[in-house]
Design a protein that fits this description.
mainly beta; 28 strands; globular
Length: about 450
């Protein structure tokens, strides 16, 4: 399949032909249209609007460190992973032993098709409840019932995911009704007593999961990297490549995304590592052009993004062209100040050998429209990371070892994409990093479609 891309211009989105035409929504005139309704060739099979919410199969909070035997044990980038032990040594083990990690999960929705996964740390020896994240039904003035993510401290995380793997082909969508995970408000990074959405009390660092291979683990928690003046953010909608998605450290999450639409809100950032696309001119703009509330629509590919730490590379389509690697390109900029009167609908499709990323709403500098980008599973140059749900969809051609070195140690991640492998699709919404990001967000209208 040839790559297709949507061009945004004027007051509506129109299709530009790079291959067969992509259908793009005109400027909506009704609430139903604004909700990003798919075309008639999709059939709705699950829906959740949070009109009621009765959790089931609630585990309650239980202690868990992702070790062998844990239902959350995945690989060497886990919270107790060999990657961190290789470069952190006994000091990392001591740090981890001093942290009481807890998890909780419950299902909701018809037939329990949705699962909330929560993770937290007990930082004062009195339990996790005093600063635990939550996912609850909430009545949002101006929007009605919503599902509310609340992460009062960056020490925890909470996500909503599909309970079961997604079908072979699907469309998953959700509507964001309110967001407070940093970014500017009214042109200011510091607002309502917050610093980029963080409560500025105590030290807030990425302790103990440092990404770089040369990080000095022999430091106290407060000497690790400060996240408050680094970044805040939220995962609007993403597809993960492993069973039972849940909060983990940020290094783990960055190695397990197939495609993602997220916010990465960098505090007062002035470098060239983040940029915006101005769709009206087709030119990339500096980060200051936006408000720090950008949507990053990323297709992950099987290259290492960093030489000295794990993480897959980004492919980014926009009206400014296609970028592979380099500075992150935000395709649009949200306007949280207008929510919930304004809302944003995010959707991901997997169909006909390709993934599609789509968002509809009223965007800063752009106006109201749908922005939509498509990338084949494998275009022969930049395949989507772990796209194969089944072993027979992939022949092992992109398999390799990834090696990370420091002056004192070497870690080898062997066979990162072997023949015979298979990776389920699970969607994830929320805040999955256990050492970054804090704030709150409201969603509704989580919907799953399959081809009619």
């Amino acid at each position: 399949m040839a790559r297709k891309r949507a061009l945004v211009t004027g007051g509506a989105a129109v299709a530009v032909l790079l291959a067969p035409v992509i259908a793009v929504a005109d400027e909506p005139g009704t609430d139903e249209a604004a909700a990003g309704q798919p075309s008639s060739d999709w059939r709705l099979v699950q829906s959740e609007n949070f009109g009621r919410m009765i959790p089931s199969d609630d585990t309650g909070w239980f202690r868990d460190k992702d070790g062998p035997g844990s239902p959350y044990d995945v690989d060497h980038y886990d919270n107790d992973g060999d990657y961190f032990r290789t470069f952190g040594g006994e000091t990392f083990d001591e740090h981890l032993d001093g942290i009481d990690l807890y998890r909780r999960s419950f299902t909701l929705g018809r037939d329990g098709w949705l699962t909330a996964e929560l993770a937290a740390r007990d930082t004062d020896g009195t339990g996790v409840e005093n600063e635990a994240p939550s996912f609850t039904r909430s009545m949002l003035r101006g929007a009605g019932p919503t599902g509310k993510f609340d992460v009062p401290t960056h020490h925890g995380g909470v996500i909503l995911r599909s309970t079961d793997p997604l079908p072979e082909e699907y469309r998953i969508e959700t509507t964001l009704r309110a967001i407070d995970f940093g970014g500017q408000r009214g042109g200011e990074w510091d607002y309502d007593g917050l610093v980029n959405g963080y409560v500025p009390t105590g030290c807030k660092t990425f302790f103990p999961w440092a990404g770089g291979t040369t990080w000095n683990y022999d430091q106290d928690e407060c000497d690790f990297h400060d996240v408050t003046t680094d970044s805040n953010g939220f995962y609007y909608l993403s597809i993960m490549d492993y069973d039972r998605p849940a909060p983990h450290n940020n290094v783990f999450i960055h190695t397990h995304r197939k495609v993602v639409m997220d916010g990465y809100n960098r505090y007062r950032y002035t470098g060239n590592g983040l940029r915006y696309c101005d769709p009206n001119t087709g030119e990339l703009q500096p980060y200051e052009w936006g408000s720090g509330n950008g949507v990053n629509m990323l297709f992950m590919i099987p290259e290492k993004r960093y030489a000295n730490q794990p993480g897959t590379e980004y492919l980014m389509h926009s009206e400014c062209g296609t970028e592979v690697g380099g500075g992150i390109v935000s395709q649009v900029d949200l306007m949280p100040e207008l929510m919930p009167r304004e809302s944003y609908t995010f959707a991901i499709e997997r169909r006909d050998g390709a993934y599609v990323l789509e968002v509809t709403g009223n965007f800063r500098h752009v106006g109201h429209r749908t922005v939509r980008y498509e990338q084949p599973f494998d275009d022969g140059e930049n395949p989507i990371w772990h796209y194969n749900q089944r072993a027979d969809e992939y022949d092992g051609r992109y398999n390799r070892d990834w090696t990370y070195t420091s002056p004192d140690a070497t870690f080898v991640d062997e066979d990162v994409w072997p023949a015979g492998s298979a990776y389920p699709d699970y969607f994830l919404i929320g805040q999955p990093h256990m050492n970054y990001y804090e704030g709150s967000a409201h969603i509704d209208n989580v919907r799953l479609y399959v081809p009619r």
